[in-house]
UniProtKB/TrEMBL annotation:
Protein name: Methyltransferase domain-containing protein
Family matches, as InterPro entries: SAM-dependent_MTases_sf (IPR029063), SAM_O-MeTrfase (IPR002935)
Keyword Methyltransferase found: yes
GO biological process terms on file: methylation
Pfam families: Methyltransf_3 (PF01596)
The keyword Hydrolase is assigned to this record: no
Keywords assigned: Methyltransferase, S-adenosyl-L-methionine, Transferase
GO molecular function, one term: O-methyltransferase activity
Species of origin: Silvanigrella aquatica
Length: 182
């Protein structure tokens, strides 16, 4: 599956896929939430999706939201038979605003909505004990010049939260894991 996604990703020239180390962590975290309900904001071509699905049990569900139908079509092709997955083609911010609080056991925010905007609203979607994961928090050589201030803003906003337990990992592309306090 990963080879198929990788080849199609290269064909599309999509260069924003999650790193394998991030995927390995996503797989382990998903496995820690049996019968879980997962949200991925930013399907892309489906790398993160693949790793989340690999860690999930048969009774779990993953909703993955993407606003670019062209890149999401790769994931749609790759996972067409996996009934645990619901692919949603929609603006992530609009999707987030329609969700009920305490809906998800884990959220992987890999797009602007949920990471760079609507952070408070996104965290409210987590169930007690739920996990919030973001990547790409370390500067990358391929970032546009205006991207670093955005990432730095997210880090500053996360540091200001006092109702969470969090850890930053200086690993892969830079990860932050967070659990809201109950």
């Amino acid at each position: 599956m990963i080879n198929y996604i990788s080849n199609r990703t290269k064909e599309l020239g999509f260069d924003m896929a999650s790193r394998p180390q991030t995927g390995a962590l996503l797989r382990v975290l998903a496995a820690s939430k049996p019968k879980g309900t997962f949200l991925e904001i930013g399907t892309g071509t489906g790398f993160g999706t693949a790793w989340l699905l690999e860690g999930m049990d048969a009774d779990s569900k993953l909703i993955s939201v993407e606003s670019d139908a062209k890149v999401q079509s790769v994931a749609k092709e790759a996972f067409q038979r996996d009934t645990r997955l619901e692919l949603v083609y929609e603006n992530g911010a609009k999707f987030l605003k329609k969700q009920a609080p305490n809906s998800f056991d884990m959220i992987f925010a890999d797009a602007f909505p949920g990471k760079y905007e609507l952070l408070k609203e996104t965290l409210e979607l987590l169930k007690p004990g739920g996990l919030y994961v973001v990547d790409d928090m370390l500067p990358q050589i391929d970032w546009p010049a205006d991207h670093y201030p955005l990432a730095k803003g997210v880090l500053e906003n996360l540091k200001k939260l006092n109702n969470v337990t969090s850890v930053g990992l200086h690993w892969s592309s830079g990860l932050i894991l967070l659990v809201p306090k109950t």
